[in-house]
TrEMBL record:
Domain FAD/NAD(P)-binding: 10-321
Any one GO MF annotation of this record: oxidoreductase activity
Enzyme nomenclature, EC number: 1.-.-.-
Domain Pyridine nucleotide-disulphide oxidoreductase dimerisation: 358-464
Record carries keyword Flavoprotein: yes
Protein name per UniProt: Dihydrolipoyl dehydrogenase family protein
InterPro entries associated with the record: Class-I_Pyr_Nuc-Dis_Oxidored, FAD/NAD-bd_sf, FAD/NAD-binding_dom, FAD/NAD-linked_Rdtase_dimer_sf, Pyr_nuc-diS_OxRdtase, Pyr_nucl-diS_OxRdtase_dimer
Organism of provenance: Streptacidiphilus monticola
Similarity comment: family membership: Belongs to the class-I pyridine nucleotide-disulfide oxidoreductase family.
Organism lineage string: Bacteria, Bacillati, Actinomycetota, Actinomycetes, Kitasatosporales
Keywords: FAD, Flavoprotein, NAD, Oxidoreductase
Cofactors demanded by this protein: FAD
């Protein structure tokens, strides 16, 4: 061992200090274990600096302005792009992680800076600034390394220097013309945000709909909202090649060209496992890390390697990664102490909701919010179901919220058990409605009992009453 290769032993080593790693480390430590939390970039992860927080800071003024514009007697407030970008910068703490490091150290975690690689069972080597450190875990190593953006393999793309979600959430000014490629959440949210900040946005979708993991009507209403706001939304179009000569020129498969100042590729994610030493423990580098419901990575002997958050591919959302972190961190502590686990579905020692009841809000105008199964997913799973729809604008609370409110709700009911399998709300102001549906789905509340959960008048929540009335006939 050289002087630069110090060795340290902890009960648990957590690789990656995003929201998942932070929560897992915290729960394991709360269970009585010593924890090293290793981070290659910024403590807080993608979510804090290049994803959830900056994107929502960019989107909130747009939504507030649109909501105000729909209230008779109010004029839409002017949106000041420089002020919005400054607020975004403040929400990312100007891309400094001192606050999160102080939290982690205050919580009793040992923060280690550097790129971590597995070096065999329970061993991790960290290449830090100027030194390398060899860590050994007495009980567990947890991989919480998240994902990075995937760029398609297109001729000329490298030279174009396209935006990924990183530039789309951290750019210092709105390009005059922005092309966005993709039809998922990043594409629609960033198209909405930069359009509001002053860019002329063209959204290129290779399929025929947006947000294809949600009910059909969600993508339809979001496309309508983007077009109303001025985004040029094009379906059934693919990019064949790209070049930059000052401006970006995209060659489209219909033979036309699209010119822009920047292009964002929002075309999905890949796991951050390519340079993680997975080969030293018998796993293929670069792949997702499938886990059992207690977080143990499949195909690794000895019960010591866990994976949580985006990297295990169960649900690529911050709140689900944090949930897994809480559950798996406690499991690691319980196993270390020899405590009995509770592994029945919804038990203390298993993640269940990240498969059975995943809520998600898309922060466009209108917002799209869903939990659980869509009608097509429920039918595809062989369930006997009935879907009930309601136009949210017909609820008194919605007509007060916005003149000409456009929105729709659907609940999917399991006919055998008469409980909700899923719900979707699309419209202005529905984000905060979603948790009521999450409670109903997770709690498996019978429809007969939901009937007694009386929403306040006149709120948008009365859509629950209308859905239940429509269901009961
Ligand atoms: C533009 C955008 C907006 C989003 N908005 C939302 C939203 O509103 N709500 C929501 O729920 N989700 C949102 N998401 C998804 C969310 O960002 C992820 O689900 C979340 O960040 C996953 O957390 P994680 O801790 O698993 O991984 P990450 O946040 O990616 O953190 C992983 C950490 O591991 C570190 N790391 C990686 N490899 C190593 C290594 N070898 N050694 C040491 N450290 C390493 C990385 O530097 C990083 O800090 C958004 C994503 C994008 C791209
Ligand atoms: N508000 C939120 O909750 C939020 C916001 C942003 C991101 N996220 C999460 O982050 C993850 C990543 O989101 P994303 O939108 O980057 O990925 P995604 O997988 O959700 O969507 C990728 C999109 O790109 C398209 N695509 C893929 N390859 C393409 C190609 N070569 N050419 C054209 N189109 C192509 C796909 O058809 C799809 O529409 C998702 O799991 C999402 O849930 C969540």
């Amino acid at each position: 061992m050289t002087a630069a290769q110090e060795q340290q032993t902890y009960d648990v080593i957590v690789i990656g200090a995003g929201p998942t790693g932070e929560n897992l480390a915290d729960r394991a430590h709360a269970g009585g274990l010593s924890v090293a939390l290793v981070e290659a970039e910024l403590v807080g992860g993608e979510c804090s600096y290049w994803a959830c927080m900056p994107s929502k800071a960019l989107l909130r003024p747009m939504a507030a302005r649109a909501d105000a514009a729909r209230v008779p007697g109010l004029e839409a407030p002017a949106l000041d792009p420089a002020a919005v970008l400054a607020t975004r910068d403040a929400f990312t703490s100007h891309w400094h992680d001192d606050g999160q490091v102080a939290w982690a150290e205050g919580a009793g975690l040992s923060v280690v800076r550097g790129h971590a690689r597995l070096a065999g069972p329970r061993r991790v080597v960290v290449e830090g600034p100027g030194a390398s450190l060899e860590l050994t875990a007495r009980h567990a190593v947890a991989v919480c390394t998240g994902t990075s953006a995937v760029l398609p393999d297109l001729p000329g793309l490298d030279a174009v220097q396209p935006w990924t979600s990183r530039q789309a959430t951290s750019a210092k000014a709105a390009p005059e013309r922005l092309a966005v490629v993709g039809g998922g959440v990043v594409a629609v949210e960033m198209a909405a945000a930069w359009n509001a900040l002053g860019s002329r946005v063209t959204l290129l979708v290779r399929g025929e709909r947006l947000l294809d993991r949600m009910e059909d009507f969600a993508g339809g209403l979001v496309a309508e909202g983007l077009r109303t706001a001025g985004v040029d939304v094009r379906f059934g179009v693919s990019v064949r090649g790209a070049r930059r000569n000052g401006e970006v020129v995209l060659d489209l498969d219909d033979g036309s060209e699209l010119r822009a100042d920047e292009v964002l590729f929002a075309t999905g994610r890949r796991p951050a496992t390519a340079d993680l030493g997975l080969e030293t423990v018998g796993l293929e580098p670069g792949g997702w890390l499938p886990v059992d419901d207690t977080g143990l990575v499949q195909g690794v002997e000895g019960g010591w390697l866990y994976a949580a958050g985006d990297v295990n591919h169960r649900a690529l959302l911050t709140h689900q990664g944090k949930y897994q972190g809480r559950v798996f961190g406690a499991v690691i502590a319980d196993r270390a102490a020899g405590r009995e686990l509770d592994t029945v579905p919804w038990g203390r020692s298993v993640a269940t909701a990240d498969v059975a009841a995943v809520p998600q809000v898309v922060f466009t105008d209108p917002e799209a919010a869903s939990v659980g199964l869509t009608l097509a997913q429920a039918e595809g799973a062989g369930r006997r179901v009935r879907a009930v729809d309601f136009e949210i604008g017909n609820v008194a609370g919605a007509s007060l919220f916005a003149e000409g409110y456009r929105g729709r709700a659907r609940m999917v009911v399991d006919l055998d058990r008469e409980v909700l399998l899923g719900a979707t709300f699309v419209g202005p102001g529905v984000a905060e409605l979603l948790h009521s549906a999450t409670v109903a789905v997770v709690g498996e509340v019978p429809v007969s009992r939901l009937w007694h959960a009386v929403p306040s008048y006149p709120t948008i929540s009365e859509v629950w009453l209308r859905l239940l009335e429509a269901y009961r006939g």
